[in-house]
Design goal:
- The complex is a heterodimer.
- Chain A is an all-beta fold.
- Chain A is 0% helix and 56% strand.
- In chain A, strands 2, 4, 5, 6, 9, 10 and 11 form a seven-stranded mixed sheet that branches.
- In chain B, 0% of the residues lie in helices and 57% in strands.
- The chains are: A mainly beta, B mainly beta.
- Chains A and B meet through β5, β9 and β10 of A and β4, β5 and β10 of B.
Chain lengths: 115, 112
């Protein structure tokens, strides 16, 4: 069990669909992250939110749209995805962006398949 | 940019010791982290080194040499449950969590 909860666990969507991934944490963390992980590869950073504001966007295509409604929630809105976007999408949180030795706490991820 | 190199796979028997090396080239460096990920699971934090030397946490230890741009994770008294992928990760700024860049991962297979 992790302290970062992601829903859904699995998602299959067509290229014309719109869907959202959700992430929730109640540890009082003020930094939240989206990572993408392909099979047998390391996680790759997509977005970082700090105090509910987007602080880093790693040149992610606009078909991925993050949202942070409050300090506990993080969403990733998906639209017009491509089959190559199929991957495990991991949410993570940390105390904040700048605290020394503040590790990432990951959720179990959403396994996304784009058909 | 950042690049990290670690071996792709290591196999060992229960009770053995495994050392996973990580060399890095980064434009900025504040620390080296290690994460464990079981198949189908979430990455979990193991350790963080910002200063040279050895950090010990139970059966796992992590070492850093900033002058050599090198670190390692030492797994002692291997157990079957240690079969997993292990990632080293670099923090380019003064926060362990922010903007981590991960190495390719080392898959550790523990045999009876």
């Amino acid at each position: 069990d992790t302290e970062v909860t992601q829903t859904p666990k699995h998602l299959v969507m067509g290229m014309t669909n719109k869907k959202s991934l959700k992430c929730e944490q109640h540890m009082g963390h003020r930094a939240m992250y989206w990572y993408k992980q392909k099979a047998k590869k390391p996680p790759e950073l997509m977005f970082v939110y700090s105090y509910e504001k987007l602080s880093i966007n790693e040149s992610v295509p606009s078909r991925f749209s993050p949202e942070c409604p409050n300090s506990s929630l993080l969403n990733l809105h998906l639209h017009a995805l491509q089959p190559e976007d199929s991957a495990l999408y991991l949410c993570a949180s940390s105390l904040d962006r700048l605290t020394y030795n503040s590790p990432l706490h990951f959720g179990n991820g959403t396994r996304l398949t784009v058909t | 940019g950042q690049s990290l190199e670690q071996p792709s796979e290591v196999t060992a028997v229960e009770g053995a010791i495994v050392q996973i090396n990580c060399t890095y080239q980064t434009s900025g460096f504040y620390g080296l982290s290690w994460y464990q990920q079981h198949d189908g699971g979430a990455p979990t934090f193991l350790s963080y080194n910002a200063l040279d030397g050895l950090e010990e946490t139970g059966r796992f230890s992590s070492f850093l040499s900033r002058s050599d741009s090198y670190g390692y994770l030492l797994l002692q008294e291997l157990q079957m449950k240690d079969s997993a992928s292990y990632f080293c990760a670099v923090s380019p700024i003064k926060a362990a969590g922010n903007k981590l860049t991960f190495g390719g991962g080392t898959r550790v297979l523990v045999k009876p």
